[in-house]
Amino acid sequence: xxxxxxxxxxxxxxxxxxxxxxxxxxxxxxxxxxxxxxxxxxxxxxxxxxxxxxxxxxxxxxxxxxxxxxxxxxxxxxxxxxxxxxxxxxxxxxxxxxxxxxxxxxxxxxxxxxxxxxxxxxxxxxxxxxxxxxxxxxxxxxxxxxxxxxxxxxxxxxxxxxxxxxxxxxxxxxxxxxxxxxxxxx
Length: 186
Fold this sequence. Notes:
Riboflavin_Biosynth_HTPR, Dihydrofolate Reductase, subunit A, Dihydrofolate reductase, 5-amino-6-(5-phosphoribosylamino)uracil reductase activity, alpha/beta, RibDG_C, 28% helix, DHFR-like_dom_sf
């Protein structure tokens, strides 16, 4: 059985995107980027909401093969090699190594969790909200940048009530602190 993990970069005040919807967080430099490369390589399946999937399609570009940085080429390979399930009611098609799902998010996630070994990543705040409310997220990973955005799209969606227990913290490059939590099961 897989572990479903919701991991995102976030500002110190809890936002994954700024007030205008742009990712206003610092771009990961080599050491931090390598951490995310390693995380992607450990991912058995990536569950993506439409917005996050469309943002990440950048890594499908052939231009990533000639990227100036080895760490970027490495991430592009890891992204392309990881199977993706994209949840969207508006997309008509998805790219390579991705499957489009328009149906029941919770049922698909439950099935994948039961049939898969390793980690299943969740990318996108709206998708994470659905899975969190269904009790399907096993671990929350907040990669906290020492910046304040002052508003925008929050890591945790409004109205979501969770009791969490700490699993640990880790200091990373660029002053980022990884905070890991698991839901308290009653």
